[in-house]
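Deliverable D5.2: sample structural annotation.
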Amino acid sequence: MGLEGKKISPDFLKKYKIDECINSFANACELYSTVLDINGSFLVEPSGPNPYLGEFYVNISNPKYYQDYLDIVSCMVNSGESTYYELDDDNPESRYAAAPLYVDGTFIGTWILYAHNKIQNQKLFKSFDSFSQMAKSLSYMMGILYSGSKSLKEDKMVRAELEFEKQSKALTNEILDAVMAGEEADIDVIYEKVGKLLNVDYMVFYEVDDLHPGHMNLVDYWAKEGKSEEAEKTFGWEQDHYSMKIAKQIMHKGLVIDKNNMTNQMRVQVFKGNAKAVMVYPVYVKGEYRGRLIFIENTRERVWNETEIYFAKEIANIISRRLTADMKVNELEEGWQIVKSMAETLPHMVMVRSLKSGKVIYANAALKEKMGADVIGRDIRNILPIQDTKYEEDGASSTGTHYQKYIDELGDIYDITESYHKWGHHNRVSIVLMTPPTSF
């Protein structure tokens, strides 16, 4: 057994009333008492009869006796037994008894009894065996209490991690469902929920600046204390100030920095002294690196656990999916703008209607002239039933129908061509081209 002590705090001894047991024993013996750790600091404050308590306190805390104390501790630890000793404290009648205290076989401190005069010396001699046995009993009790408190702490940590995992999975699924359903989810709400669950100070999304290599554009962020200029200055990392090695790591697999691997150089040069823990994950759109999502902890030292790391990475992946979906929608919308522009120039009637509701989403000028501008929003399945359709869900291909039909409202037979597609944020739609009989 060496002199490396377990970290047992005074609060631990107070919580389980070990200090009261020690003081009660000393009071019964009418002796002075204290407990010192390996550094000579008090684990249990000195106690005893009033007349010489001050003198005892001064002697036991005097730095000049520290080496003597270490020598005594070393002897006790090697022998495993209590001992008497004397200090050159200008009082020839003073005597000390010391007993080592252990937790799970590891030295944690020294229990000291002090006698100031001959009468107290006699009491110290008579109580020495009981004192030694009491120290061993307290060591045994503290071992049980320490193991129990450690297990309880570990159990609480495990339960906390499981609860976080449960909440993070639920939130991930909620956000993912909204994104995959094409809902216009409020990104601020997403950031707030994620930021609060992770208990970080900032959650920031930067986008690649195509015009200025090495720079990033701030797209949006969440701050625990609310958005402000001061907050933006704190995490103002628009310039890619990371080293080339770190920048490449971010682009490929992300960066996780916390108490375990944060260096002073990294804190100052990389994070400008404004971060204690950081997670950075890349955001890709259609396979191309387009930005980074950053989780920043400025308030406290922390170590990211595996569940937090996985959750943060999943949120970055979801944002990648959302941006990819938005880009596809934008591309579709641009395509439909071209289709509508062409349709406006045709003399034939063209409409787009929902295959789910049957309602007209778009009508060109020729159709509006024949059926009125209020045709948009009408369900016209009663005059033009939706035909049997086959449709690939990813929109990569579609089939169509071609037929002739007499339309009562228009009073003639029309040549009808109908094809099936996806229209921006809408679900499946059909494009209907109605050619009047005069053009057969």
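Annotation notes: The radius of gyration is 39 Å. Residues 1-5, 391-397 have pLDDT under 50 and may be disordered.
The annotation will be released with the project's public dataset once the embargo ends.
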